[in-house]
Structure formats: structure tokens, C-alpha cells
Amino acid sequence: MSTWNDPPGGFHPISAPDYLPREQLQKIQLQRLQSVVGRAYDRVPLTHSRMDERGLTPASVGSLADIAKLPFTVKTDLRDTYPFGLFASPMEEIVRLHASSGTTGKPIVVAYTQADLDVWSEVMVRALVACGMHRGDVIQNAYGYGLFTGGLGAHYGGEALGATVIPISGGNTERQLMVMQDFGVTAICCTPSYFLHLLESAKETKIDFSKLRVGVFGAEPWSDSMRERIQDESGIRAHDIYGLSEIIGPGVGIECMERRGLHIFEDHFFPEIVDSETGEVLPEGAEGELVLTTLSKQAMPLIRYRTRDVTALVSEQCACGRTLRRIRRIGRRSDDMFIIRGVNVFPSQVETALLRVEGTLPHYQIILTREVGLDQMEVKVEVTPEVFSDEIRALESLQRKLEASIENILGLRVKVTLVEPRTLARSEGKAKRVTDLRSV
Ligand code: DLL
């Protein structure tokens, strides 16, 4: 068993909070909870009015258990207050904005003060240390840079660790493989599906990446069988990293060397598991929806945020010595969002994109497949009888318009196939829009 003086990958003082006695950790959590609730109550009108409605003030939080009295925050709150309505800091103090998919045409926006960015780097360092990484590692960071939190989150974490970071971002597989071989890459950060794609391509080009030791994979669900395939084919150790833009980005939770669940950095993010239907808090160990409260966020504190990610809390002490509780790996969500090539997609966004173009019926089907390791998304759309009788050129132009409209909203190129009126299956009750044919 390793201790905090001897964490896997070498000592890193920043990881000390991972090993605190539980009582000490809970004291810090309560202090921070009271402070963050006070901040949100004073500065965020939505939180203020929701607490008022329930007769609550910051003084109502006297213990950690009192968190259950507080109102939830949900994704549509971010949409309804778009773009900046949940910010608790003035713009002069906000040094970074990121954005992620909303449920329709507009993204949701998240903000960071410098102190927030420092916390983010801190938890990312702790995550990388937990994966056995250290100074001297050469990290190929193939998470997308830009509004997505994956790129910059892993970037600053890697630098703060003292490793060498290659900010290659996603895409351009040939260049990725060249860099991996020529720059002596020892660790890679990317989505697991993209790594699988790199592996497939490496087979053809006979790339040698024998120095590669660790993969830090997240931003989408991936199964144990996918992990086995990745590890068997590449010889690396694959770790699962969890996070979401609303809370901070990557670095909310990480698998340590034991890889029996993801440790949550509980001194910054307070986890609860609730029944996704009733919102009732479930006992430790039960499966339900993960709810997170940011304990130290300044720019955009979120109280009891409904992540929609389904998991369970594991509280037995981990053999790695960390006292932080773990969550089970996330396999599904309690809403209809799916993730393709690291991009979050709601069927309602696709619908919004289709409705912006004339000539289609509101009947569509989204089909997800995996070709040579890379996820593909196809949208089958019924056209109106009038358009269907048009000449082929008109149909091609409609198809291109639909593809462009979807790309505009999702930032993702997908294939649109036009089909005859009344050919897609109709469902009684709630429509099932997504067919997932991905096997691993
Ligand atoms: O995906 C942040 C991230 C970047 C995490 C890089 C890990 C690595 P969003 O784009 O806001 O943020 O998407 C968040 O992605 O609510 C989950 O549904 C899903 N997700 C993230 N990590 C995992 C994971 C980033 N390890 C949403 N396993 C979350 C399963 C994951 N699902």
C-alpha cells in the first residue's frame, strides 16, 4: 500500500488533501460550503430567490447534511440565464470563459477567476499524479483546445505538474502519430475513442510508441472492455478521468493506480447521489444521479448541480491510501444527451438545426456507428412529399444545407441522409431518436 509520502509516481506536495483524515476533510468542506452558499445567495439572483422561496438563508447550513435542504441547479438554468446570469464575480475579475453544449441552439457559458483557474490546475495535477505521472513525462495533449475545457484544463495541469506538454489538440491523426514517436511521448490525454482511432491508424503505419506508458481518457463513457482492448493493443495503462464544464472541466474525479472507481476531489467538489426522478438523496452505495456542489468556485459557484450522470458513491477506503471517496465509472446518463468524438449532443439540438431549414418533416433518426475506431454520426431525415418529387440537384442542395445547419450548432460534421416521407419508424409515446450501433 502506498502512503501520501510515497504516492505512485513520486511525492507531490499538492496531493496532500487526497490523504486527509475524513473528519479534517469534512471540516474544510463545511467551512467552504457555508462560504460558497453565502456567495451564491448574495450574488446570484436565481439562487437567492430559490432559497428565499424555501425560507432558507446561508445560516440554514449548519452541517454538511443540511446541503440536502438547498435547491438544485439544472442545465436549463444555465440556458435560461444565458450568457452570464449565474456569474458571481464582476467581469473585471473573470479571466476565462469556456462553453459547452446546451440543450438547443445556444451553448452554456462557464466562467473562471484566476483563483478558479488555480484550483483547476491543482486538481488536474492531483489527477495526473494519481495516474503515476511526474516531472519528466512528455504529455501529448490531444483533447480539443478552444471552448471545450479538455484542452486547456489538461494543458495547465500538465505544466503545473512540471511535465512537458505538447499542445497538439485533436485531429490530424498522421501528425499525432509522428509526434508520439519522434517526441518520445510518455503520456497521452484524449478521448478514449480517439485513442482507439490512433491505435488503428498506427497499425497501418507501424509507428513505434513503446515509450508511451499512460493514457488519461475521459469526456465520454467508455466500457471496461474498451479499456482491455486499449491496454492489450498498446501496452499502456489506461485511466478514466471525469469532469464537466459546469463544475470546472476535467479533474473532478480520477482513477488512481488501483482503478477501482474515480476519486472525487471532495475538498473542492461535494458529491451526492440522488434519485433522478424524485431528487431524493440516496444512501451511500446506491446507484443514482450524481449531484455536485462547487465548494471553492468564485466566478460561477453551482449549488447542487444535477449532472445527469448515473453512478454510485463508494466509501470503502481505497488501497492507494487516498481518503477521498470514489464514484463508480459512468456508463450512462439519465437524460438523452450522448457524446460523439468528445462533443456533447442533445437530440433537441439536431432538431433545432433541422427546423432551421425548410423542406424536411420533423421525423429524423440519429444513428451512431464506429468505423475504424472513430465514432460517426448519421442523421436520417424525412423530406416533404413536395421536395421528394424534386430533381436530384435540389435534394443534394437540401442535404448540404442540413449538414451545414447541424455543423453550425454542434460544431461537428455529420452525414445527413434524406429519406422518403413516412419511411422512418414512428414510436408511440416518447420518440426514440438515437440508435447506437457502437460495439465497444
Ligand atoms: O467533457 C470535461 C472533460 C474533458 C472531462 C476531458 C474529462 C476529460 P463537458 O464537455 O461539459 O466536459 O461534458 C461533460 O461528459 O457530464 C459526462 O456525461 C461526460 N463525461 C465526462 N467525463 C466522462 C467520463 C468534459 N470519464 C459530460 N466517463 C459529463 C463518462 C464522462 N462520461
Summarize the SSE layout with pairings:
Blueprint: H1 22-43, H2 45-53, H3 75-80, E1 94-100, E2 108-113, H4 114-130, E3 138-141, H5 149-161, E4 164-166, H6 173-182, E5 187-190, H7 192-205, E6 214-218, H8 224-234, E7 237-244, E8 249-254, E9 262-264, E10 269-274, E11 287-294, E12 305-314, E13 326-327, E14 332-333, E15 338-340, E16 343-345, H9 347-355, E17 360-371, E18 374-383, H10 385-388, H11 392-410, E19 415-419, E20 434-436
Parallel strand pairs: 3-4, 3-5, 5-6, 6-7, 17-20, 18-19
Antiparallel strand pairs: 1-2, 7-8, 8-9, 9-13, 10-11, 11-12, 12-13, 12-14, 15-16, 17-18
Helix pairs in contact: 1-2, 4-5, 6-7, 7-8, 9-11
The structure holds 5'-O-[hydroxy(phenylacetyl)phosphoryl]adenosine.
5'-O-[hydroxy(phenylacetyl)phosphoryl]adenosine (DLL) binds at residues 100, 143, 149-150, 218-221, 240-245, 249-250, 307, 309, 330, 333, 339, 344.
